[in-house]
Amino acid sequence: MSRSRTRPVTEPGRRSLAPAERARTIIASATGLRVGVLNLTHEVGRHAVGIDGSLLFLAPADSPGAIFRVAPRLPAQVVTVTAVDVATVPQHDRIRGSLRLTGPMRPAIEPLPAGIREHLAGPDPQDVELAGPVLRMQPTRVMLTWQCERGAGAGGPSVEIPVEEYRAALPDPMIELESQWLPHLLLDHTRLLRTLARAVHEGLDDSIDVRPLAMDRFGIVLRLYAEGRHLDRRLTFAKPVACGCDLREAFDDLLRRVAPDEPGFSC
Q1: Burial zone of 49 (CB within 10 Å; 0-12 exposed, 13-18 middle, 19+ buried)
Q2: Residues 19-168, CATH architecture
Q3: What is the pLDDT at residue 262?
Q4: Torsion of the alpha carbons at 146, 164, 215 and 87, rounded to the nearest 10
């Protein structure tokens, strides 16, 4: 794959989510968590995230060992919770990053939002009756690994996020739209993706496969595959977006900047 030349479209500044925002986005969108203590782990299929970034889940009856054996009068169990971020479109490597939270887990004895137990138990009413107490895990250490926008085979560096920043951050507002738009772009807008890729990769030809990898309120990341290698390239929106209408305008603006003769973006 030839070397890329970044044009002004990606300048001024490669804006993207702050690490704390990325962490809150990953934990908010995770479809499953791995909870562990020492050498014991258990998969938790449903969870909720508090305003402060704490996690709520039900203690399952079939967990190994004493992972979820906690009580108000006993010392808090310190656990590690891992969430893996996976791209919503087919990729050679769909794992974009991971988040590891460590902290004490206690029974949630305070009043909880209405319906939270039913949400955590899932759609089967029987699961509500069989599940154990609602537990709250309060992170005291936050480690983020983000692998996007790095070279082929490069596992992104792990960075420790100050707990205060994690608690104060919010998930990216594009969290739901990203999961819908990336497959839509791949299936219905291949020409648009290749047009955008040409703006950030010189000499793009038919041998290079272009796929949308990630999107946030600041821009979109494309992954370019060729000869068993890949490059990730970010295109930055003119301004941060907050809704679907903003997103359509942002793509129109990108196209006007990189390919004025191309027709505008249309869903």
Answers
A1: middle
A2: Roll (2.30)
A3: 67
A4: 50
Give the pLDDT mean for 109-115: 84
Q: Which CATH class is domain 174-258?
A: alpha beta
Which of 249, 260, 258 has its CA nearest to residue 217? 249
Instruction: State pTM to two decimals.
Output: 0.86
Which residue in the block uniquely carries the two structure tokens 């804006």? 15
What distance in Å separates the CA atoms of residue 111 and residue 193, rounded to the nearest whole number? 48
Residue type, 184: H
| Domain locations along the chain | 19-168, 174-258
Contact between residue 156 and residue 148 where contact means Cβ atoms under 8 Å apart:
yes
**Which residue(s) pair with 98 in the sheet?**
84, 145
Of 5 and 208, more confident: 208
What tens digit of pLDDT does each residue of 60-85 get?
766 666 667 766 666 778 999 999 99
